[in-house]
Structures are given as C-alpha cells and as structure tokens.
C-alpha cells in the first residue's frame, strides 16, 4: 500500500478543492431561486443550467480520479443541508475563531471592530414565520428609514414575498445585498 502512495504515476484521486466545490452545489440547488427560463432547440434551460453543466464537466474532467471527490463533496453538502448530527450548531472554540478574526482584519487595531460573531437566535426578520441566525448589524438605535420601492421590487422579483423583503431591507439598512443574504439564510433554516 505504501508503494502506491509514493509512486506519482499511481495517483488515484485528483488534487484540488473538489469536495468544497461540489458541496456548494447543494445549497445552490436548494436556496438560489431560478430567475430565467428559456428554450433552445426545444430543450428547456434555466439561468442555473450552465452552472450545472460546468460542474458536470469538472466532475468528469479527470474521470475516475475526480468522481470520488465530487461525490464526497455532494454527500458532505447534503449532510450539512439535512443538519445531520446537528452539525449547524457546532462551533469552533473561541480562541480559534478569535485568532482567525484577528488574522482576517489586520488593518484594524482593536478587536472591537472585528466582524460580529454569529448568534444562534438573532434579531433578523423572519421569513415564513422562522427566525434566522443574524450576523448583520442591528438597526436598533438608528431611525428606521422606509426602504425604496425599487429595492423592494428587486427582492420581490427574486421570488421573496413583499413583506419579508421590506423587513429584510429595514434590518439591512436598505442594503439590497445584505437583505438578500438575510432572506436566503432564513429560507435555509
């Protein structure tokens, strides 16, 4: 067996981030809404079809060496999606998370300006009656500004209901990107 590990010509698995890439296909399939549908030569496509085709090409690119890492990635993404063994509640120890928090923001001198940590029961708006984990700045203390109609319309065009879109925009201080993240996180829980 050790002979197989030392001979470079006998590489059984492709190196690279296959597991990470293919595990991200699971939330992409379930959480990202389809915004465009069209037909080409009678075959139905969506705006997500070409991402799937690129993933299939990557999966089959090294044939036998890339199939196993790709399938393991899809399996890992599925287990996370199903919250198998309550994996979503697992956290890194505080000293590890604070180390990487300081490492990721070396320009700031104090740790008080570092990114806020995720709290289990955040005060983000609910989507279909569910609470989401909030890691967005709270809008408490600031005057609530009514979101612009075009921002609400943008979120509604993505498939979110109007009231949830408005609540998310208020919570995200009218930042459409942050509001989209809030709504997507709410759908995944």
From TrEMBL:
Keywords: Membrane, Transmembrane, Transmembrane helix. It comes from Vitis vinifera (Grape). Signal peptide: none annotated. This is Rhomboid-like protein 20. Residues 146-186 form the UBA domain. The chain crosses the membrane at residues 12-30, 66-84. It holds the Pfam family UBA. The gene is RBL20_0.
């Amino acid at each position: 067996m050790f002979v197989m590990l030392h001979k470079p010509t006998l590489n059984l698995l492709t190196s690279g981030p296959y597991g990470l890439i293919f595990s991200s296909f699971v939330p992409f399939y379930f959480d990202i809404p389809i915004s465009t549908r069209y037909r080409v030569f009678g075959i139905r496509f969506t705006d997500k079809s070409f991402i799937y085709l690129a993933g299939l090409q990557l999966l089959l690119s090294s044939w036998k060496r890339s199939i196993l890492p790709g399938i393991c990635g899809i399996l890992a993404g599925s287990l996370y999606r199903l919250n198998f063994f309550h994996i979503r509640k697992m956290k890194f120890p505080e000293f590890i998370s604070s180390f990487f928090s300081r490492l990721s923001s070396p320009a700031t001198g104090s740790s008080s300006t570092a990114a806020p940590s995720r709290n289990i029961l955040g005060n983000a708006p609910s989507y279909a009656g569910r609470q989401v984990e909030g890691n967005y700045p709270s809008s408490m203390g600031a005057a609530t500004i009514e979101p612009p109609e075009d921002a609400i319309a943008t979120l509604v065009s993505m498939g979110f209901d109007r009231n949830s879109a408005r609540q998310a925009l208020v919570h995200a201080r009218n930042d459409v990107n942050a509001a989209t993240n809030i709504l997507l996180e709410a759908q995944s829980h």
